[in-house]
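ugh finaly. both done.
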Amino acid sequence: MDKKQKNYTNLSIAGVLFLMTGYVLDKIIKIDNTTIALACYMLSIICLLISILKMNKLKKEEKEAEAKKNDKKSNNKKQKK
């Protein structure tokens, strides 16, 4: 696992933790000020969306790099023939 992928995985974990924190504050502890719980929910959504989008972008870049590498190999084989 490279450094970028690890960062996005950590961001996903942070999103889940914010979601769990918001749930605990809202449903279990039942605090009067729901703004804190809503802020936790919003932070979890933001973290999870960013991590999903960045991971998809990283996978797309890896596929493009693989395709370029395969194209170079096929071009080299054509030139040798």
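ok and the 2nd:
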Amino acid sequence: MMIDTIQQSLISEGLQEARQLVQTMKQKAYKLANTDLLKRISELEDTLRSIDDVNNISTEAVHIEKCSLKVLIDTAYQMYHLYFSRKDIRFSSYVANLHVRVDKMSFFRMFFSLVHYMGKHAHPDEERFISIEAAAYNSQTVAMYIEDNGLYPTSNTDIFDHSFKRRITGAISGVGLAAIQQWATSVGGKVCPVDKVGSGLKLCFLLPGTASPHLREQPLGEARLPLEQGTSVIC
């Protein structure tokens, strides 16, 4: 998959540069005997290792299993929370008591790709956010909405068009959304853009899954999703 190979290469190059910078910072921190800085550097090294692990996993599903969607999202956020902090992006999710059937590692890589795509288009003047909400779509499908308030170029081109690989530069910025669409298809789901008020991007993922009240998970925040079972989503 060409788009996946290019993206992996860009991320690997960026990780190598990041490791070199971290090593320089670590040497200075040792000289200054700054224990607080050394602790933060250690956390950063753990994050880089996590990103490297995920980068080596293809967006194609490998081992599909039933997972708690809330646990997946919470884990993904913990893996990349430093990125949100550095970009000054407020992340929120309202997800609970839902099971989805996906491959965990490719889910994390999909999340990483989408977050970086959104981060590149973060609004320069407004409070930045990325939010996730989910609900049962029908008895066999879960609808997961991810949206932000970024600034995106106006274009009639299909945002999932593989030709978006032409956007590649020397930075780690994601390579359009074609890989995201391929991931959704690989787990038996689909993804489509949703019209929204104001700036930003909103995507709806329809994933194999069910509501599972026995999980007894407590969502954070307040639900804004008006979705009810049977609601039509056009993809």
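summary for the 2nd one i guess: Strands lie at 65-68, 89-94, 98-102, 128-138, 141-148, 190-193, 202-211.
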